[in-house]
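Side project, low priority. Logging it here so it doesn't get lost.
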Amino acid sequence: MKLQLALLVAAVAAAQAASAATFKWTSASDIPTLDVHSQNNALGNGVHAAVYESLVYYNSRSFKVEAQLATDWKLLNPTQMRITLRKGVKFSDGSAFTAEDAVFSLNRAMAKTSNYGVYAQGIDKVVKVDDNTIDVLLKAPNPVLMNQLTELRMMSKAWSEKNKSVEPKDIKTKDESFAHRNAMGTGPFMVKEWQPDQKLVMVRNPNWWGKMEGNLTEIVYTPVRSEATRVAALLSGEVDLLLDPSPQDLGRMRSNSALKVVDGAENRTIFFGMDQFRDELVGSNIKGKNPLKDVRVRKALYQAIDSNALNKVTMRGLSQPTGTLVSPQVNGWTKKVDARWPYDIEGAKKLLADAGYKDGFEVDFACPNNRYINDEEVCQAVTAMWSRVGVKAKLRTLPLVTYFPMIQRYEASIYMLGWGVPTFDALYSLQSLVRSVGAGGDGNYNVGRYSNPQMDALVERIKKETDAKNRNELIEKALELSHQDVSHIPLHNQIIPWAMKKSVDVVHRADNRIDWRLVKVN
């Protein structure tokens, strides 16, 4: 009997060892930080979710909010949400996760240096009820609170205090905290090593409370800026998955019998923002004025862009031209608000002439070169399009890690941004992009500093409206106002292909995020 038991144990151990897998993947850019309340960046958020967990999270197959570190939540009254925490959860250092950590983490997300205030909008304060219960007290009813909480990950209060990381790292400065380069969460993986711009290694957390559907024991991420090098790494078998294959390489990847490509529409809209705040643009040949403050100029820039050509030539079909700031997967999108201003070169020239710029003008134009699909190529194409109406855009491209802090310091006259919507509700976009810059996440990525009191009033109403029909009507009005004001220039929604070995099994998500609990390598 003892021999049979020993053989069974050995067989189980051997099977587990055989199924254990190291997963190697790559994309163009590195994560900006390990601090989960510092830089609100989609790639970083997806990686953080392997190490840090939130109270609730989206199910990767249904995209319904489901329990994670919380097991139950209910409204005691319209402005008081009681959340019951999962018992027996430990951080990777073996310490217990309690209500103290939950209260600390939500307050940390609302700190001045946090970029996650938009996810905490409407929260007045968070209080501990007992070791396994917290109350979230709201300033007003919030119909999307649980969606917001999917992005607010939990940290250890004791670890943060010990390592002088009580406040999030301020991405606008070069100052670093311990939490910027180190991590300690409750998630299925732990950070073993991070060498910025070189390699990130994560290994299984032996203290994780959950059940792994996949078989990963180690995850190795290598950022590689060169498209050709990334493709070569996948073709040679050096990596298992390429998160951002270039459109021009997809054909040969699809025809390679050792690979597969999984496609899906992303809930991310690519657009240009414009400085509508300064009285004089930096680096422009127009002195004493800011052409971008004139809606006719903004509309001219919009109508000079041939979005169909961008879709067919530059994006090779991996885009959906759009006329609004949210994608069809997001609550609040309608066909009406998605209608674009028409492509019209002569109309654009007339608008510029009417605004007093018949000879055009020079303007700074900043874009990332390793964040979105063909981001640099899109900006190069648009630079050529604008030149046809006399606008001389002085294009400069930067890597993600320096680009985002730069635009958040308001140092770009025209800039590219891609905005995904983790809450799947248009308020997230409206509050971040068109609400005047203020506190609590208002305008946190309104880096062109567009401001319209009518828009601000609409956003404030949307925050509190609980009747779905009324709320969606308000959202449509706000998106229509953005269109009329040309607050931004929408380009397209991305179609995201993931290229991988045939042996890899993943669930494609609309937020372009890998669910590490589900990945299998056969």
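Brief comment: The chain has two domains: 21-220+503-521, 266-496.
Revisit when time allows.
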